Write the structure tokens for this entry.
Amino acid sequence: MRQVVYGAACSLDGFLAGPDGSLDWIHFSKDVERLIAAQWTRFDVVLMGRKTWLVGLEMGGAATMPGAATYVFSRTLADQDAPGATLVRDDAVEFVRALKQAPGKDICLMGGGELAQSLFAAGLIDEVGLNIHPVILGAGAPFFRDPGHRIPMTLVDTETLDGGCIMATYRVSTSPSGGE
């Protein structure tokens, strides 16, 4: 079965963006480029919520990648607001559950704590990759939101990156419903 991998850069205190949506604290380096290039080969599907998609567009292009289907989950965007992606208005949990059963490579869930919250609650996320940055933002968009239950994880790998960042990869130990 395909795996759903949730990942993004986050602050030391667990935020994806600052209170004003700022991302200027994110450190890009050759290490990060190498990791991203290696990781992309394992995916043929990218999932994003509306907010993550719009941030990607503002940064000069969303997270579409050649040879991969990109799905944007939103009830408010119009089709023309998602160039290069498929807009999904259906229930995210059922949509992702069906994707996991379909043949193909693994599935990348980019950023977006709200979409991840519903997928964690349904037991559909299998792995978490955190690029932890050495900054405390104090507030902002949280990487994790309450899924309604405890989710144990097992550390799979860590790597120290340029700029004092740490890449930490965790495997979800159990999925209460719908996952492995």
